[in-house]
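Sync notes, pocket subgroup
Present: LS, DG
LS reminded everyone that the earlier model was apo-only. Rerun requested with zinc ion included. Inputs:
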Amino acid sequence: MSASTAILTARSLEDEEMFHGTKPGWIEVICGVMFSGKTEELIRRTRRAVIAKKSVKAFKSHLDDRYDGIRTITTHDGTCVDAIPINSPLEIMEAVAPDTQVVTVDEAQFLERGIVDVATSLAGRGVRVIVAGTDSDFRGEPFGAMPELMAVAEVVDKLHAICVKCGDPACRNQRLIDGKPAPYDSPIIMIGGTESYEARCRHCHQVPRKNEHQTKLL
Ligand SMILES: [Zn+2]
């Protein structure tokens, strides 16, 4: 990352606090690969909202236990916000109170497309919505509703991890099964075998396709 990019990134993370139109209610998206610090950034923003005495509701998708997400956010004065695990975006609407000012959602890539309507509706009624999620899957393709959320958001921050192969900024989730790059068609849920993930850049990311193996054999 060049020095100028680093400065821009730092500035954009501060800008979210500057985003005050004349009316309340907007959407912020924090996206990027695993290990890029999305959840830390979501916790940072949530903590600041709690310190500012905003009424905050935190949610996390609990579809997949491999992704830990936020459980509890505690501030220095002991104020605590528990993240409510949800299966469906509609559960957010049920849990939000009329006086809720800030709604945060972690691991949003696992939620149905309805999260876009929920975020839009909440922002329309004056709620600051902060959504964090992985924007690309292990194949490097758009993940769930994240691309649409990025399109309807006022503020998007795309964070990077560091490529474990070459040290460049990483924008891909490398899935490994038994230590080898997972094929394109590998099942989303693994039965047997050990799978793991690491951060890689575009050039070091590997997703072997079936026909590649066949071509090699020919
Ligand atoms: Zn790399």
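DG: The pocket of zinc ion is lined by residues 163, 165-166, 168, 200-201, 203-204 (CB under 6 Å).
LS: Residues 3-159 form a domain with the Rossmann fold fold (CATH 3.40.50.300).
Action: DG to write up.
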